[in-house]
Amino acid sequence: MVEYITHNSDVLTEAIYPEAVIMFSMNLFRTLPPSSNPTGAEFDPEEDEPTLEAAWPHLQLVYEFFLRFLESPDFQPNIAKKYIDQKFVLSLLELFDSEDPRERDFLKTILHRIYGKFLGLRAYIRRQINNIFYSFIYETEHHNGIAELLEILGSIINGFALPLKEEHKMFLIRVLLPLHKVKSLSVYHPQLAYCVVQFLEKDSSLTEPVIMGLLKFWPKTHSPKEVMFLNELEEILDVIEPSEFVKVQEPLFRQLAKCVSSPHFQVAERALYYWNNEYIMSLISDNAAKILPIMFPALYKNSKSHWNKTIHGLIYNALKLFMEMNQKLFDDCTQQYKAEKQREKYKLKERDEIWQKIEVLAQQNPQFMLFGDGGVGVFSMETDTPTAEDIQLLKKTVESEASQGLKDLKKDKVLMRRKSELPQDVYTIKALEAHKRAEEYLTANQEAL
Protein backbone atom coordinates (compact mmCIF):
# COMPACT_ATOMS: atom_id res chain seq x y z
CA MET A 1 0.00 0.00 0.00
CA VAL A 2 2.83 2.40 0.88
CA GLU A 3 4.60 1.72 -2.41
CA TYR A 4 1.36 1.97 -4.38
CA ILE A 5 0.38 5.38 -2.99
CA THR A 6 3.95 6.64 -3.45
CA HIS A 7 4.57 5.62 -7.06
CA ASN A 8 1.12 6.01 -8.62
CA SER A 9 -0.95 9.08 -9.39
CA ASP A 10 -4.71 9.67 -9.22
CA VAL A 11 -5.14 6.99 -6.55
CA LEU A 12 -6.66 9.22 -3.86
CA THR A 13 -10.34 9.11 -4.71
CA GLU A 14 -12.87 10.65 -2.35
CA ALA A 15 -13.76 7.23 -0.95
CA ILE A 16 -10.16 6.66 0.16
CA TYR A 17 -10.09 9.60 2.61
CA PRO A 18 -12.43 8.26 5.34
CA GLU A 19 -10.90 4.79 5.06
CA ALA A 20 -7.32 6.11 5.42
CA VAL A 21 -8.22 8.21 8.46
CA ILE A 22 -10.17 5.36 10.09
CA MET A 23 -7.30 2.92 9.43
CA PHE A 24 -4.82 5.35 11.01
CA SER A 25 -7.09 5.97 14.00
CA MET A 26 -7.84 2.29 14.65
CA ASN A 27 -4.19 1.26 14.55
CA LEU A 28 -2.47 4.16 16.30
CA PHE A 29 -4.83 5.95 18.67
CA ARG A 30 -4.35 3.97 21.87
CA THR A 31 -3.73 4.40 25.56
CA LEU A 32 0.01 4.70 26.07
CA PRO A 33 1.65 2.39 28.63
CA PRO A 34 2.62 3.89 32.01
CA SER A 35 5.91 5.77 32.11
CA SER A 36 8.91 3.56 32.80
CA ASN A 37 10.24 6.17 35.27
CA PRO A 38 7.36 8.42 36.40
CA THR A 39 8.94 9.87 39.55
CA GLY A 40 12.67 9.28 39.10
CA ALA A 41 15.39 11.53 37.72
CA GLU A 42 14.68 13.26 34.44
CA PHE A 43 15.64 11.49 31.20
CA ASP A 44 19.23 12.16 30.15
CA PRO A 45 19.55 11.66 26.36
CA GLU A 46 23.33 11.22 26.65
CA GLU A 47 23.16 8.43 29.23
CA ASP A 48 19.71 6.86 29.25
CA GLU A 49 18.30 4.55 26.62
CA PRO A 50 14.70 5.21 25.52
CA THR A 51 11.99 2.62 25.98
CA LEU A 52 11.07 1.34 22.51
CA GLU A 53 7.55 0.40 21.42
CA ALA A 54 7.25 -3.39 21.08
CA ALA A 55 4.73 -3.12 18.22
CA TRP A 56 6.85 -0.66 16.22
CA PRO A 57 7.24 -2.81 13.02
CA HIS A 58 3.45 -2.70 12.67
CA LEU A 59 3.02 0.95 13.74
CA GLN A 60 5.81 2.11 11.43
CA LEU A 61 3.97 0.90 8.33
CA VAL A 62 0.82 2.77 9.36
CA TYR A 63 2.79 5.97 9.99
CA GLU A 64 4.60 5.60 6.66
CA PHE A 65 1.32 5.14 4.79
CA PHE A 66 -0.42 8.10 6.42
CA LEU A 67 2.56 10.40 5.86
CA ARG A 68 2.68 9.46 2.16
CA PHE A 69 -1.08 10.00 2.08
CA LEU A 70 -0.69 13.57 3.41
CA GLU A 71 2.26 14.35 1.13
CA SER A 72 0.70 12.95 -2.04
CA PRO A 73 0.32 15.48 -4.89
CA ASP A 74 -3.29 14.27 -5.21
CA PHE A 75 -4.14 15.07 -1.58
CA GLN A 76 -7.07 17.51 -1.32
CA PRO A 77 -7.44 19.26 2.07
CA ASN A 78 -11.00 20.34 1.22
CA ILE A 79 -12.10 16.70 1.18
CA ALA A 80 -9.85 15.58 4.05
CA LYS A 81 -11.06 18.28 6.45
CA LYS A 82 -14.31 16.35 6.91
CA TYR A 83 -12.33 13.55 8.57
CA ILE A 84 -9.16 15.21 9.93
CA ASP A 85 -10.88 17.38 12.52
CA GLN A 86 -10.24 18.72 16.03
CA LYS A 87 -10.93 15.35 17.65
CA PHE A 88 -8.37 13.71 15.34
CA VAL A 89 -5.74 16.36 16.15
CA LEU A 90 -6.33 16.00 19.90
CA SER A 91 -5.83 12.22 19.70
CA LEU A 92 -2.68 12.79 17.64
CA LEU A 93 -1.27 15.19 20.25
CA GLU A 94 -1.86 12.66 23.04
CA LEU A 95 0.54 10.27 21.29
CA PHE A 96 3.41 12.78 21.66
CA ASP A 97 3.92 11.42 25.19
CA SER A 98 5.18 8.14 23.69
CA GLU A 99 8.60 7.08 25.03
CA ASP A 100 9.72 5.80 21.61
CA PRO A 101 11.64 8.60 19.81
CA ARG A 102 10.88 7.03 16.41
CA GLU A 103 7.14 7.40 16.97
CA ARG A 104 7.52 11.01 18.15
CA ASP A 105 9.57 11.75 15.04
CA PHE A 106 6.76 10.57 12.74
CA LEU A 107 4.14 12.40 14.82
CA LYS A 108 6.14 15.63 14.56
CA THR A 109 6.24 15.46 10.77
CA ILE A 110 2.57 14.45 10.43
CA LEU A 111 1.35 17.26 12.73
CA HIS A 112 3.52 19.75 10.83
CA ARG A 113 1.95 18.63 7.52
CA ILE A 114 -1.55 18.95 8.99
CA TYR A 115 -0.75 22.45 10.29
CA GLY A 116 0.47 23.47 6.84
CA LYS A 117 -2.47 22.06 4.87
CA PHE A 118 -5.44 22.78 7.15
CA LEU A 119 -5.69 26.52 7.81
CA GLY A 120 -8.83 26.12 9.90
CA LEU A 121 -7.02 23.89 12.41
CA ARG A 122 -4.01 26.14 13.00
CA ALA A 123 -5.36 28.14 15.93
CA TYR A 124 -6.76 24.96 17.52
CA ILE A 125 -3.40 23.15 17.19
CA ARG A 126 -1.54 26.06 18.79
CA ARG A 127 -4.09 26.24 21.61
CA GLN A 128 -3.85 22.51 22.38
CA ILE A 129 -0.04 22.60 22.31
CA ASN A 130 -0.26 25.49 24.79
CA ASN A 131 -2.45 23.34 27.05
CA ILE A 132 0.15 20.55 26.98
CA PHE A 133 2.85 23.06 27.93
CA TYR A 134 0.76 24.55 30.76
CA SER A 135 0.12 21.09 32.20
CA PHE A 136 3.82 20.23 31.86
CA ILE A 137 5.03 23.47 33.54
CA TYR A 138 2.55 23.80 36.39
CA GLU A 139 1.31 20.26 37.08
CA THR A 140 3.22 17.17 35.93
CA GLU A 141 6.71 18.35 34.87
CA HIS A 142 6.73 15.12 32.86
CA HIS A 143 6.10 14.78 29.12
CA ASN A 144 8.17 12.98 26.52
CA GLY A 145 7.28 15.10 23.49
CA ILE A 146 8.18 18.66 24.56
CA ALA A 147 11.26 18.82 22.31
CA GLU A 148 9.28 17.69 19.25
CA LEU A 149 6.42 20.12 19.93
CA LEU A 150 8.92 22.98 20.31
CA GLU A 151 10.55 21.98 17.03
CA ILE A 152 7.17 22.26 15.29
CA LEU A 153 6.58 25.64 16.96
CA GLY A 154 10.01 26.86 15.85
CA SER A 155 8.93 26.30 12.26
CA ILE A 156 5.53 27.92 12.90
CA ILE A 157 7.09 31.00 14.57
CA ASN A 158 9.45 31.36 11.63
CA GLY A 159 6.40 31.81 9.40
CA PHE A 160 4.48 34.29 11.57
CA ALA A 161 3.35 37.40 9.70
CA LEU A 162 4.40 40.84 10.96
CA PRO A 163 3.44 42.64 13.09
CA LEU A 164 3.10 39.84 15.63
CA LYS A 165 -0.35 39.25 17.10
CA GLU A 166 -0.84 39.83 20.82
CA GLU A 167 -1.71 36.12 21.14
CA HIS A 168 1.77 35.19 19.90
CA LYS A 169 3.51 37.62 22.25
CA MET A 170 1.56 36.20 25.19
CA PHE A 171 2.64 32.71 24.15
CA LEU A 172 6.28 33.82 24.40
CA ILE A 173 5.86 35.42 27.83
CA ARG A 174 3.46 32.94 29.44
CA VAL A 175 4.64 29.65 27.93
CA LEU A 176 8.14 29.75 26.46
CA LEU A 177 9.76 31.69 29.31
CA PRO A 178 8.26 29.57 32.16
CA LEU A 179 9.48 26.45 30.32
CA HIS A 180 12.98 27.50 31.47
CA LYS A 181 12.21 26.68 35.10
CA VAL A 182 11.40 22.98 34.64
CA LYS A 183 14.08 20.62 35.97
CA SER A 184 14.27 18.59 32.73
CA LEU A 185 15.23 21.66 30.66
CA SER A 186 18.28 19.93 29.16
CA VAL A 187 16.06 17.56 27.15
CA TYR A 188 14.47 20.34 25.06
CA HIS A 189 16.63 23.44 25.61
CA PRO A 190 18.07 23.75 22.04
CA GLN A 191 14.55 23.81 20.55
CA LEU A 192 13.33 26.24 23.23
CA ALA A 193 16.24 28.64 22.67
CA TYR A 194 15.59 28.53 18.91
CA CYS A 195 11.93 29.52 19.43
CA VAL A 196 12.89 32.44 21.71
CA VAL A 197 15.50 33.77 19.28
CA GLN A 198 13.00 33.48 16.40
CA PHE A 199 10.61 35.74 18.30
CA LEU A 200 13.32 38.35 18.92
CA GLU A 201 14.32 38.33 15.24
CA LYS A 202 10.67 39.02 14.39
CA ASP A 203 10.17 41.76 17.01
CA SER A 204 13.14 43.34 18.81
CA SER A 205 10.85 45.14 21.29
CA LEU A 206 10.35 41.77 23.03
CA THR A 207 14.03 41.67 24.06
CA GLU A 208 13.59 43.39 27.42
CA PRO A 209 10.77 41.15 28.76
CA VAL A 210 12.61 38.05 27.49
CA ILE A 211 15.94 38.88 29.16
CA MET A 212 14.22 40.00 32.37
CA GLY A 213 12.26 36.73 32.30
CA LEU A 214 15.46 34.71 31.92
CA LEU A 215 17.03 36.57 34.83
CA LYS A 216 13.89 35.88 36.90
CA PHE A 217 14.19 32.12 36.30
CA TRP A 218 18.02 32.05 36.54
CA PRO A 219 19.15 28.86 38.33
CA LYS A 220 20.65 29.36 41.79
CA THR A 221 22.17 25.94 42.55
CA HIS A 222 22.06 23.96 39.27
CA SER A 223 25.33 24.75 37.46
CA PRO A 224 24.75 22.72 34.22
CA LYS A 225 21.41 24.52 33.84
CA GLU A 226 23.20 27.84 34.41
CA VAL A 227 25.56 27.04 31.52
CA MET A 228 22.50 26.43 29.30
CA PHE A 229 21.11 29.84 30.28
CA LEU A 230 24.44 31.46 29.39
CA ASN A 231 24.42 29.72 25.99
CA GLU A 232 20.92 30.99 25.26
CA LEU A 233 21.71 34.47 26.50
CA GLU A 234 24.63 34.74 24.09
CA GLU A 235 22.35 33.69 21.20
CA ILE A 236 19.95 36.47 22.24
CA LEU A 237 22.74 39.05 22.48
CA ASP A 238 23.85 38.08 18.96
CA VAL A 239 20.54 39.41 17.58
CA ILE A 240 19.87 42.23 20.07
CA GLU A 241 19.49 45.82 18.90
CA PRO A 242 21.83 48.37 20.57
CA SER A 243 18.82 50.42 21.73
CA GLU A 244 17.36 47.33 23.45
CA PHE A 245 20.72 46.38 24.96
CA VAL A 246 20.87 49.69 26.86
CA LYS A 247 17.57 48.85 28.62
CA VAL A 248 18.84 45.56 30.09
CA GLN A 249 22.60 46.08 30.42
CA GLU A 250 22.71 46.74 34.17
CA PRO A 251 20.69 43.74 35.48
CA LEU A 252 22.25 41.59 32.76
CA PHE A 253 25.85 42.34 33.74
CA ARG A 254 25.08 42.10 37.44
CA GLN A 255 24.10 38.50 36.74
CA LEU A 256 27.19 37.96 34.57
CA ALA A 257 29.36 39.29 37.41
CA LYS A 258 27.84 36.61 39.67
CA CYS A 259 28.56 33.97 37.02
CA VAL A 260 32.19 35.10 36.70
CA SER A 261 32.49 34.70 40.49
CA SER A 262 30.98 31.20 40.43
CA PRO A 263 33.18 28.51 42.02
CA HIS A 264 31.92 26.13 39.30
CA PHE A 265 34.57 26.68 36.64
CA GLN A 266 32.32 25.83 33.66
CA VAL A 267 29.87 28.59 34.66
CA ALA A 268 32.67 31.15 35.07
CA GLU A 269 34.34 29.98 31.85
CA ARG A 270 31.11 30.22 29.81
CA ALA A 271 30.41 33.73 31.10
CA LEU A 272 33.96 34.90 30.30
CA TYR A 273 33.66 33.55 26.74
CA TYR A 274 31.31 36.49 26.10
CA TRP A 275 34.46 38.62 25.84
CA ASN A 276 35.47 36.59 22.75
CA ASN A 277 32.27 37.59 20.91
CA GLU A 278 32.95 40.57 18.63
CA TYR A 279 29.37 41.87 18.53
CA ILE A 280 28.96 41.65 22.31
CA MET A 281 32.31 43.42 22.74
CA SER A 282 31.12 46.25 20.47
CA LEU A 283 28.01 46.64 22.68
CA ILE A 284 30.16 46.61 25.83
CA SER A 285 32.56 49.16 24.31
CA ASP A 286 29.70 51.56 23.54
CA ASN A 287 28.40 51.28 27.12
CA ALA A 288 31.65 50.71 29.05
CA ALA A 289 30.92 53.55 31.50
CA LYS A 290 27.93 51.55 32.85
CA ILE A 291 29.29 48.02 32.46
CA LEU A 292 32.89 48.24 33.72
CA PRO A 293 31.97 49.49 37.24
CA ILE A 294 29.61 46.49 37.56
CA MET A 295 32.11 43.91 36.27
CA PHE A 296 35.40 45.23 37.71
CA PRO A 297 34.99 44.02 41.35
CA ALA A 298 34.18 40.45 40.25
CA LEU A 299 37.01 40.40 37.70
CA TYR A 300 39.60 41.84 40.10
CA LYS A 301 38.66 39.59 43.01
CA ASN A 302 38.64 36.38 40.94
CA SER A 303 41.88 37.23 39.14
CA LYS A 304 43.48 36.46 42.52
CA SER A 305 41.14 34.07 44.28
CA HIS A 306 39.60 31.69 41.70
CA TRP A 307 40.92 28.16 42.04
CA ASN A 308 40.97 27.34 38.31
CA LYS A 309 43.99 28.40 36.22
CA THR A 310 41.98 28.59 32.98
CA ILE A 311 39.65 31.13 34.57
CA HIS A 312 42.62 33.31 35.51
CA GLY A 313 43.67 33.56 31.86
CA LEU A 314 40.15 34.43 30.71
CA ILE A 315 39.77 37.06 33.44
CA TYR A 316 43.07 38.70 32.50
CA ASN A 317 41.90 38.70 28.87
CA ALA A 318 38.66 40.48 29.87
CA LEU A 319 40.56 43.01 31.99
CA LYS A 320 42.98 43.68 29.14
CA LEU A 321 40.09 44.35 26.75
CA PHE A 322 38.52 46.77 29.25
CA MET A 323 41.88 48.49 29.72
CA GLU A 324 42.29 48.92 25.96
CA MET A 325 38.75 50.28 25.60
CA ASN A 326 39.17 53.15 28.05
CA GLN A 327 42.33 53.44 30.13
CA LYS A 328 41.02 56.39 32.18
CA LEU A 329 37.78 54.60 33.04
CA PHE A 330 39.75 51.49 33.99
CA ASP A 331 41.96 53.55 36.34
CA ASP A 332 38.89 55.23 37.85
CA CYS A 333 37.26 51.86 38.52
CA THR A 334 40.48 50.61 40.08
CA GLN A 335 40.60 53.59 42.43
CA GLN A 336 36.90 53.27 43.27
CA TYR A 337 37.38 49.60 44.06
CA LYS A 338 40.37 50.43 46.26
CA ALA A 339 38.39 53.17 48.06
CA GLU A 340 35.41 50.84 48.57
CA LYS A 341 37.66 48.19 50.10
CA GLN A 342 39.21 50.81 52.38
CA ARG A 343 35.72 51.81 53.56
CA GLU A 344 34.83 48.17 54.20
CA LYS A 345 38.07 47.72 56.14
CA TYR A 346 37.35 50.81 58.22
CA LYS A 347 33.79 49.63 59.02
CA LEU A 348 35.05 46.20 60.04
CA LYS A 349 37.71 47.78 62.23
CA GLU A 350 35.05 49.92 63.91
CA ARG A 351 32.95 46.83 64.50
CA ASP A 352 35.91 44.99 66.05
CA GLU A 353 36.58 47.93 68.37
CA ILE A 354 32.93 48.03 69.49
CA TRP A 355 33.01 44.30 70.29
CA GLN A 356 36.23 44.79 72.24
CA LYS A 357 34.56 47.51 74.31
CA ILE A 358 31.57 45.26 74.95
CA GLU A 359 33.95 42.49 76.02
CA VAL A 360 35.74 44.83 78.46
CA LEU A 361 32.43 45.99 79.95
CA ALA A 362 31.35 42.38 80.31
CA GLN A 363 34.53 41.57 82.22
CA GLN A 364 33.70 44.36 84.70
CA ASN A 365 30.39 42.71 85.52
CA PRO A 366 30.53 41.03 88.99
CA GLN A 367 28.97 37.87 87.57
CA PHE A 368 31.55 37.57 84.77
CA MET A 369 33.67 35.09 86.76
CA LEU A 370 30.64 32.87 87.24
CA PHE A 371 29.40 32.78 83.65
CA GLY A 372 32.29 34.04 81.51
CA ASP A 373 34.74 31.67 79.79
CA GLY A 374 37.74 33.72 80.90
CA GLY A 375 38.99 34.44 77.39
CA VAL A 376 38.61 37.41 75.10
CA GLY A 377 37.71 36.28 71.60
CA VAL A 378 37.91 38.99 69.00
CA PHE A 379 37.43 37.88 65.42
CA SER A 380 38.97 40.01 62.72
CA MET A 381 36.85 40.26 59.58
CA GLU A 382 39.25 42.36 57.55
CA THR A 383 39.24 41.90 53.79
CA ASP A 384 42.19 42.26 51.48
CA THR A 385 42.46 45.82 50.27
CA PRO A 386 44.42 46.40 47.05
CA THR A 387 47.49 48.54 47.63
CA ALA A 388 49.10 50.83 45.06
CA GLU A 389 51.63 48.06 44.40
CA ASP A 390 48.76 45.62 43.79
CA ILE A 391 47.26 47.97 41.20
CA GLN A 392 50.53 48.33 39.31
CA LEU A 393 51.11 44.59 39.49
CA LEU A 394 47.58 43.98 38.17
CA LYS A 395 48.26 46.06 35.03
CA LYS A 396 51.54 44.26 34.35
CA THR A 397 49.99 40.86 35.01
CA VAL A 398 47.00 41.60 32.76
CA GLU A 399 49.33 42.19 29.81
CA SER A 400 51.34 39.01 30.27
CA GLU A 401 48.68 36.63 31.58
CA ALA A 402 45.96 37.54 29.06
CA SER A 403 47.93 36.23 26.09
CA GLN A 404 49.39 33.30 28.06
CA GLY A 405 45.96 32.32 29.36
CA LEU A 406 44.50 32.15 25.86
CA LYS A 407 47.44 29.99 24.70
CA ASP A 408 46.92 27.62 27.62
CA LEU A 409 43.20 27.52 26.89
CA LYS A 410 43.83 26.28 23.35
CA LYS A 411 46.50 23.84 24.51
CA ASP A 412 44.82 22.36 27.57
CA LYS A 413 42.13 19.77 27.24
CA VAL A 414 38.78 21.21 28.33
CA LEU A 415 37.43 19.54 31.46
CA MET A 416 33.97 18.12 30.98
CA ARG A 417 31.56 16.25 33.23
CA ARG A 418 32.48 12.60 32.92
CA LYS A 419 29.62 10.39 31.84
CA SER A 420 29.18 7.04 33.53
CA GLU A 421 29.97 4.04 31.37
CA LEU A 422 26.90 1.83 31.40
CA PRO A 423 26.35 -1.32 29.34
CA GLN A 424 24.22 -0.47 26.33
CA ASP A 425 21.31 -2.44 24.93
CA VAL A 426 22.43 -3.58 21.47
CA TYR A 427 18.85 -4.02 20.24
CA THR A 428 17.92 -0.44 21.21
CA ILE A 429 20.99 1.01 19.48
CA LYS A 430 20.32 -0.94 16.26
CA ALA A 431 16.62 0.00 16.25
CA LEU A 432 17.36 3.71 16.60
CA GLU A 433 20.09 3.60 13.94
CA ALA A 434 17.73 1.84 11.52
CA HIS A 435 15.07 4.52 11.93
CA LYS A 436 15.17 6.97 9.04
CA ARG A 437 13.76 10.38 9.88
CA ALA A 438 10.70 11.35 7.89
CA GLU A 439 12.27 14.76 7.31
CA GLU A 440 15.55 16.08 8.73
CA TYR A 441 14.35 19.65 9.24
CA LEU A 442 10.90 21.15 9.34
CA THR A 443 10.27 23.97 6.90
CA ALA A 444 8.43 27.13 7.84
CA ASN A 445 4.77 27.64 7.14
CA GLN A 446 4.06 31.20 6.10
CA GLU A 447 1.10 32.27 8.21
CA ALA A 448 -0.78 35.27 6.94
CA LEU A 449 -3.40 35.12 9.68
TrEMBL record:
Gene Ontology terms describing biological process: intracellular signal transduction; meiotic sister chromatid cohesion, centromeric; negative regulation of cell cycle process; nuclear chromosome segregation; regulation of mitotic cell cycle phase transition
Keyword annotations from UniProtKB, A to Z: Cytoplasm, Nucleus, Phosphoprotein
Main location: cytoplasm
An example Gene Ontology molecular-function term: protein phosphatase regulator activity
Transmembrane segments: none
Intracellular or extracellular location(s): Cytoplasm; Nucleus
Pfam families for this protein: B56
GO CC terms in record: chromosome, centromeric region; cytoplasm; nucleus; protein phosphatase type 2A complex
Gene3D superfamilies assigned to the protein according to its UniProt record, in alphabetical order: Leucine-rich Repeat Variant (1.25.10.10)
Domain of life of the native organism: Eukaryota
Keyword Cytoplasm included in the entry's annotation: yes
Recorded family membership: Belongs to the phosphatase 2A regulatory subunit B56 family.
Record note on quaternary structure: PP2A consists of a common heterodimeric core enzyme, composed of a 36 kDa catalytic subunit (subunit C) and a 65 kDa constant regulatory subunit (PR65 or subunit A), that associates with a variety of regulatory subunits. Proteins that associate with the core dimer include three families of regulatory subunits B (the R2/B/PR55/B55, R3/B''/PR72/PR130/PR59 and R5/B'/B56 families), the 48 kDa variable regulatory subunit, viral proteins, and cell signaling molecules.
PANTHER family: SERINE/THREONINE PROTEIN PHOSPHATASE 2A PP2A REGULATORY SUBUNIT B, SERINE_THREONINE-PROTEIN PHOSPHATASE 2A 56 KDA REGULATORY SUBUNIT DELTA ISOFORM
Protein known as: Serine/threonine protein phosphatase 2A regulatory subunit
Organism this protein belongs to: Oryzias latipes (Japanese rice fish)
